[in-house]
Automatic annotation (TrEMBL):
Ranges for domain SCP2: 321-410
InterPro entries on file: HSDL2, NAD(P)-bd_dom_sf, SCP2_sterol-bd_dom, SCP2_sterol-bd_dom_sf, SDR_fam
Biological classification of the source: Eukaryota, Metazoa, Chordata, Craniata, Vertebrata
SUPFAM superfamilies for the chain: NAD(P)-binding Rossmann-fold domains, SCP-like
Name of the protein described by the UniProt record: Hydroxysteroid dehydrogenase-like protein 2
Gene label: Hsdl2
A GO cellular-component term linked to this record: mitochondrion
Keywords: Mitochondrion, NADP, Oxidoreductase, Peroxisome
Disordered as annotated region, ranges: 280-302
Organism: Aegotheles bennettii
């Protein structure tokens, strides 16, 4: 949808551009013949994460752009300054800054280690602020300068804070930079925020979600296309908190299946995005992907026969398999309130697996608390686990990776419930 070479000759300084969303935005601009400063930490191949600043540079140049790889940890101010000076020396200036580098830990206050808090505040807030500050003198000299932060629209509803307070504060810190700088430099530099409506498939998402999570995600291309739309607008377009799908629909894009890893399953709603979208209710009707399965000993449960919770566990019993146990290796405890409340469990660690009413046979790896009604909705595809978690309907303690693995059971069971 974007045939014109609008960014030809422009210089983009992109943090975290060695992989993921940052690299996708870089490659999109490179097709126009743009100059890309790859400001990222990874100079040597990572043990698990793909890509370095040098491999990204080769891809950018193959796409038609010019690349300048710079080792930059945005926690280190001098590294930012050195990279900016090198960019100006090489390309003659800076036209666009994309603050993409970010750190994430979706953990509660008591579970978040101090070093993780420091990392998120240093990278997300302080790194964004310092990189913007360092680039601004050069941006002000550009004909159509832009700063674009990958951060969410700000919504002070407590539900966005209660489950991962430190992370939300840090991302909203990036958004507050947009609010302040857009007004401070109005008429000189455009400052905007971009956020995805659904989860985007990156190496970081694989680490958070484990195998199978990609089926719920969209490709990085959707953010690259949305970023291109923003960065090619005049500098009078400023102070906006843009959701990728909303903007692209306004630009005339109609087929969003092209962005999906697995069409019909791309429904993970992210921090702030559902509040910015009129389609929140529509999104909440679809099930997510994930992985698990188990045997259920419903005969010992005092639940009313064929009641919703008991029926759910009856179906789980039929779905149990040794393969689920082998691949999941986790014990899940459910603390349900309301009708059929009490403690239930699914054991996907012990040989053969088991499930039922009462405490699990061994210490649970994950404890999930919610109402029995929401539990049934979640297992029948009427309530997405991520939306339930983000909205506070579902509280999770323990191993988050295992909690996400359990979601595969929803895909297996939805058609049976």
């Amino acid at each position: 949808p974007f045939p014109f070479r609008k960014l030809a000759g422009c210089t983009l300084f992109i943090t975290g551009a060695s992989r993921g969303i940052g690299k996708a935005i870089a490659l999109k601009a490179a097709k126009d013949g743009a100059n890309i400063v790859i400001a990222a930490k990874t100079a040597e191949p990572h043990r698990t994460l793909p890509g370095t600043i040098y491999s990204a540079a080769k891809e950018i140049e193959a796409a038609g752009g010019k690349a300048l790889p710079c080792v930059v940890n945005v926690r280190e101010e001098q590294q930012i300054i050195n990279a900016v000076e090198k960019a100006v020396e090489t390309f003659g200036g800076i036209d666009i800054l994309v603050n993409n580098a970010s750190a994430i830990s979706l953990t509660g206050t008591l579970e978040t280690e101090t070093k993780k808090v420091n990392l998120m505040m240093d990278v997300n807030v302080r790194g964004t602020y310092l990189t913007s500050k360092t680039c601004l003198p050069y941006l002000r000299k550009s004909r159509n300068p832009h700063i674009l932060n990958l951060s969410p629209p700000m919504n002070l509803n407590p539900m966005w804070f209660k489950n991962h307070c430190a992370y939300t504060i840090s991302k909203y810190g990036m958004s507050m930079c947009v609010l302040g700088m857009a007004e401070e430099f109005r008429g000189e530099v455009a400052v905007n925020a971009l956020w995805p409506k659904t989860a985007i498939h990156t190496a970081a998402m694989d680490m958070l979600g484990g195998a199978g999570i990609e089926k719920q995600c969209r490709k990085t291309d959707i953010l690259a296309d949305a970023a291109y739309c923003i960065l090619t607008k005049p500098k009078t377009f400023t102070g906006n908190f843009v959701i990728d799908e909303v903007l692209l629909r306004e630009e005339g894009v109609k087929d969003f299946d092209v962005y999906a890893i697995a069409p019909e399953k791309t429904n993970l709603c992210l921090l702030g995005a559902s509040q910015a979208s009129k389609e929140e209710k529509k999104l909440s009707r679809s099930p997510q992907e994930g992985a698990a399965g188990a045997k259920v000993h419903t005969e010992s449960a005092p639940a009313k026969p064929l009641s919703p919770v008991a029926e759910t566990f009856r179906v789980i019993q039929g779905a149990m398999s040794e393969e689920y146990v082998r691949t999941t290796q986790g014990i899940f405890q459910f603390e349900l309130s309301g009708d059929e409340g009490g403690t239930w469990y699914i054991d996907l660690k012990t040989k053969g697996g088991s499930a039922g009413f009462g405490k699990p046979p061994a210490t649970a790896d994950v404890v999930m608390s919610m109402s029995s009604a929401d539990f049934v909705k979640m297992f029948t595809g009427k309530l997405k686990p991520t939306l339930a978690f983000m909205s506070g309907k579902l509280r999770i303690k323990g191993n988050m990776t295992l909690a996400i693995k359990l979601e595969k059971m929803l895909t297996q069971l939805t058609s049976k419930l």
